[in-house]
Amino acid sequence: MAEAMSDSAHWDAEASRARRNHFISRVVIYGLLLIFAAIYLLPLAVVVMNSFRSLPEIAEHGLIAFPRSFEFDAWFDAWNSFCLNGACEGMRGNFYNSLWMTIPATIISTMLGALNGYILSKWRFKGSEILFTCMLLGVFMPGQVALMPWATILGSVGLSNSTAGLVLVHVIQGISFTTLFCRNYFVAIPDDLIKAARIDGAGFWRIFYKIILPLSPPILIVTVIWQFTGIWNEFLFGVVFTSGREQPITAALFALAGNQTNVREYDVMSAGVLIAALPPLLIYFFGGKYFVRGLTAGAIK
Amino acid sequence: MATLTIRNVRKSFGAVEVLKGIDLEAEDGEFVALVGPSGCGKSTLLAMIAGLETVTSGEIHIGGRMVNSVPPKDRDIAMVFQSYALYPTMSVRENITFGMESRGVPKPEQNAAVERVAAFLQIEPLLKRKPGQLSGGQRQRVAMGRALVRDPSLFLFDEPLSNLDAKLRIDMRTEIKKLHHSVGKTTVYVTHDQVEAMTLASRIAVMHKGEVQQFDEPKTVYARPANLFVAGFMGSPSMNFIAADVVEAPDGRSAVRFPMGEGVEAVLAMYGDYAGLKPGGKVIFGVRPEHIFRFDPDLSARKPGIATLDAPVEMVEPTGAETIAILRFGAQEIVGRFDPDTAPGMGETVTLGIDMAHACLFDPTTERLI
């Protein structure tokens, strides 16, 4: 009995030692994680803080410092009145350009991708696999390869220096990705569903609307997020094919950074960067969980 | 009235010919089972009847109409799939009405049809649910409901029970049989399970390597299999095959002779008309496990054509309802099916009665029934 008691006391001591070790290791792990997170977030914090500081303050205390004042002037400036490309209207025009470019291009390329994916997975025809392989090449093709051909095409169809032209470019450039996403997702939808629907008298479009699309929200959300952020953040086509007022916000941002006036206006630049980054951030914020879910849902059906 | 006639139908995928001239017909109201191992072409044939696969050559007639180039929706058929193929985003009701919706059937008519079918299959409480919320058996019922609601002239079933567990499968098998009885529509049923084919069908087409090996009533297919393949495929445990010589029995009848080991030979006199058999020829002697039993003089008085031989018992497998025994016939293991009460013990040498009236002989070169 006494022996048993001391035995259990021994085990208690053992257990509390294990608990303490576990606690220490947790503290170390979370401490390290916090440090890494802080390092990762530091640039963002600097930009956010600078967007609320005044320019004289930045000049006096340096780029990296805690704000001593808090004002929205830089945001208004960047949005409304900052002088860019010879006009003092801020970036709002470019922001709207980006919206008018990104939204239609995202919707059209996603719809075409869904339709392509549907055909390439459920209505295969002679050579459809080869066609799909060719479309896949587009995924690996760097955008700059297409610069010259696009310049020629946009010129000949009269869409140079216009948002509509950029929509066209992004729709076509995006089809490879959207088709790949949708096709791989649709492949996992059982063919028997299509056969049953055909016997039930449904045709190509009815099967698409009534059976395929209702099963597709996970992949459509993934595709929309992918396309939206990709097109919004795209810089090369924007800066090459448009100029001045027609530029999307990424190109305007570049102009803002390269603005050769006497002083570098770090406050306005910070606010401008944040304005430009906001839509993709919001998209991730609201759709991020679907994004992760959708990517894995495609894999395991 | 819907008959199904298939004439010399062939199907090739590229250079591979998967169906090599199929001839079949189903009379109105008949239940035809297509049975065979996987890859025999039975599902392809069904898909061609449904119009989901094109016909390479030959003709398919449904109700006297050539349907080779008629799209599936216009063939007046309904199909139940192995995976059930219920539309996952639609409720049970929407699943059942989808076909009528596609055809533009008026709403009141749709509702009446759903009520009728749901009552018939006892699935009314499930109508609002999604397929994901149903058990396997319920999904099966809904899939049948979707087929029934069309009131087609031809029902097609593609291995509808193979996704169910053993007990439910037997229940649903009975349900399908009842259903066919009360609806009385021509049915083609694909299965790899010979028991399903035997229990359900009015005629069975046994398929192998893209050809129909035999097309006949279940009892004929079972008792008089057209060739070695059919004999081996139908029945579980399978028929025993023994290579044998044809000899003349002391009473002048034809007999088969085969070695039993240790220099002993068994000579079993055939029963029935085997006038064509020439002594000295070679045959394959086939006997089903249930036609091997413990010899009993009383039995041979009632059953003519019983031959006897002695064989050692290698292994005994009691299943409850019957006892399967592995018997040693020389170099071969032979399966016998015994009544548990009279089953031999392991290691025992037992005097067996073999019911020669049910024995089959096959030609060893053509593999056909003699």
Describe the structure.
The complex is a heterodimer of chains A (301) and B (370). Chain A is mainly α. The radius of gyration of chain A is 27 Å and the shape is flat. Chain A has 13 helices and no strands. In chain A, helix 3 (73-81) crosses helix 13, helix 4 crosses helix 12 (249-257) and helix 5 (128-140) crosses helix 7. Helix content of chain A is 76%, strand content 0%. Chain B has nine helices and 20 strands. A six-stranded mixed sheet of chain B has the order 6-7-8-3-9-10, sandwiched between helices. In chain B, helix 2 (92-103) packs across helix 3 (107-121), helix 2 (92-103) packs parallel to helix 4 (136-148) and helix 3 (107-121) packs across helix 4 (136-148). Chain B is elongated, with a radius of gyration of 25 Å. Chain B is of the alpha+beta class and 370 residues long. The model of chain B has no long low-confidence stretch (mean pLDDT 90). The interface between A and B is medium-sized, with 16 and 24 residues.
Fraction of residues in helix of chain A: over 70%
Strand content of chain B: 35-45%
Radius of gyration of chain B: 25 Å
Number of strands of chain B: 20
Query: Uncertain runs of chain A with pLDDT below 50, 5 residues or more?
Result: none
Based on helices, strands and strand pairing, what is the structural class of chain B?
Answer: alpha+beta
The biggest beta sheet of chain A reads: none
Low-confidence stretches of chain B: none
